[in-house]
Amino acid sequence: MQKFYTHLIFLFFLIAVGFLEGGTFTSFTLVDETPTQPLANPTPGDYQPRYVSGFGEDGNFTIFFEDRDNGGKISYVKTENGPLNFATTSTETNITDTHFLVKDWPIEINGTTYAYRAWASVGNNEDHHFYVSNNLTNWTLVSTFKVSNAASFTNARGKVYYGFHDVIELNSTYYAFAESNAGQTMIVRSTEGNDTWEAFASVGGNNSGDGPLLIPSTATNGWTVRGNFFDLGNDRGIGKLYCSPDDDAFYLAVNIAAKASLTPSQRAAAFIDPDNWTWNDDTNGSASNPVFSKTTEHDLREAWVVPRSDPSRRWVLIYDADYGSADGGKALGYANMYPDPCDGVMKKLSAMHWTLIGFPCNTGSNGVDDLLGDALGTYGTDWVMHEQTGNDDYIGGNTQKRQLASTDHVTPTKGYWIIAASDKNMSIDTTLSGLTHTSKQAASTFDINDSAFDDLNLTVLPDSNTSSDKRIMLGNPFQHKMQLSELYFSHAGTGDGYNPMSSSSSSPNADYIRSSVYTYDYNGTSADNYVAVSPDTPGFSDTIELGVGFFVILKSSDSGENNITFPFEK
Questions:
Q1: Which of 103, 253, 264, 289 sits 20 to 30 Å CA-CA off 227?
Q2: Residue 12 domain-assigned?
């Protein structure tokens, strides 16, 4: 790895970067992107979707639904670039079952390998169908099956009637939540993920003995749950949306014990333990605090959360709803799901080792002691923070820092040094008032067109120095990791506008900013611990993690304003 210059050694005696650990989960902020009109495609009025499911991730996914305008025929619609780019028409399959659930998991049946498998309910009875396909349109029925109740499942009420909400594979076993004809949400499992299943536990329902996740006390109908399981990101476990029995709200169930960092067997054990499931507000029993509610224009029927290749990024929620006859009746809409401000950040601080950090949110009028003191102890005794000053640009050994007062505020785009007297787990107090998401602007405002993001944060850097380089401490301002190549830079007066970070000598940025940035990875006592993050150089990391601070190096050049943009990735 490239080394940061040796004259960057601090007057501090040891410096270390902490690493991310799983924090507690608080909640989501959901923003309805189609509050008054459904998605334009597929064309509303041409179908009436119910029981949404899907597969795929990021912007490339497929949605299945039961079309009530077509005799209950299952149809699907694809997109390769997010919810605004569905086809205008849906594709009809040969299936007319309900609660249809598809997975793009290859499976071999009688010597033939199929790319997709699916499960469905056969009306309101115990029978279910297991299908396979190689083209999504034409499905082959493998078998009709029933879900048995395990002998050990002594509190089972009824039998599974209404299909699987979702199927997840953990430690080589397939699990699902399924509804019984007595209103109980059962946990079912299969060793092959085919047509052999058994119910072995209950995670909730409409009876106080069913488990921790009960329907709202005001509900007049049983659950119509279609939400899928999804990784909550930043090692916070697994989440699942529940749809209100009365089509008026979505509720979020979480299992923060089922962390991604566990071994497969440990994660599976945590997942299937009903006691680990709560609502997102840390309550159990009857759901009372929805995360998403109907509007005056539309209700809420079913939902599917688009999985992310990077779970720390925001999620897209596809839902079906009744928008009223003027807007085509039942149709698809979508919302963006954001972690609550400052949620998901936890760093391990090693005793007497400096750590370079950034803040992923606007912290308002809260001082650093308010933000971090509950986790770290007494400010000035147990821990302190320092910031870079206007005269502190690492030129010629000028490395004096300013120690923050306990009441000083922080800025999400700046980098800070923090040190603790003993080993500590740093986390932000997310219960404080005044916390908001980092501000952002439309990328198009700056003539930036990048498929990875539509919005960004603009940060003004110091002017360049005509005789020497400047080293500026910055921080990742968002609640997800960023790709360095998605940071854009401009130098006033060049006429080249904003350009991505690139190690190419022909880049318009080449004369003004070093293409690599520098984080700090403590494994010794020298400046060798600075780690280069490079945008397009093989063998180097190109990712700036959540909560990480880093240095950019402004090259000596003609004086002029420098700006950098941070991507709010899709």
A1: 264
A2: no
What is the three-class DSSP state of 7?
helix
C-alpha distance from residue 405 to each of 11, 367, 416, 420 (Å)? 20, 8, 13, 15
120-123 long-range Cβ contacts below 8 angstroms, 24+ apart: 120/74, 120/95, 120/163, 121/97, 121/161, 121/162, 121/163, 122/97, 123/98
Residues 116/54, Cβ–Cβ less than 8 Å: no
Helices (H) and strands (E) in the chain, counts: 2, 45
User: Among 288, 320, 338, where does a domain finish?
Assistant: 338
Q: CA 332 to CA 83: how far, in whole Å?
A: 9
pLDDT of 470 reads: 86
Q: Coil, strand, or helix at residue 529?
A: helix
Output the six-digit token pair for 117: 């498998």
Residue 83 resides in a domain = no
Residue 292 shares a structural domain with residue 179: yes
Which tokens belong to 370?
């308010």
pTM, two decimals, is: 0.80
Q: Which of 305, 338, 371 is the last residue of a domain?
A: 338
pLDDT at 250 > cutoff 60: yes
Residue by residue, DSSP assigns 442-486 as EGGGGT--BTTEEEEEEEEEPPPPSSS-EEEEEE--SSS-EEGGG
Q: Which domain holds residue 56?
A: 28-72+162-338
Residue 6 scores a pLDDT above 60: no
SS (H, E, C) 295-351: CCCCCCCEEEEECCCCCCCCEEEEEEEECCHHHCCEEEEEEEEEECCCCCCEEEECC
In a domain, 269, yes or no: yes
What is the DSSP secondary-structure string of 75-86? EEEEESS-GGG-
